[in-house]
Design a protein that fits this description.
mainly beta, four-stranded antiparallel sheet, Jelly Rolls, 145 residues
Amino acid sequence: MSLLLWGCKDVMYQESQKVPNKNWEAERTFRFEVAVQDTMSNYDFYIDLRNGANYPYANIYMFVNTTFPSGKTARDTVECILADRRGKWLGNGLGDILDNHILFKENIRFPNAGTYVFEFEQGMREEALSAILDVGISIEKHTGK
């Protein structure tokens, strides 16, 4: 499911994809293609993750692969904290579904115009992660707040 928000001036790109059967298989990669024209503004990059309250961990490790318009690639390992030390979920939601909007990179500028590809892999050493419902990204103009 792709969603571009034109009404909200601070959101440059937002897309979320459903995880089949709410189980993120180790070999499953989520791919997002982002067309960038503005190389002068600074942006904040968020990982959007929706999980069920029955997710068995307090965090999730991911590998984020970025392919630049030039073809150059970069790989980041990211830990997304989903619950505090006491087990209280940090995401927002009603009932047993939680939405997490996790800052990944802050105040970045795209070096070149063109299409950037972001690919997400789960890095939890599990064949399948249960209770992961959606994986997505949001790129928002940096407001300095």
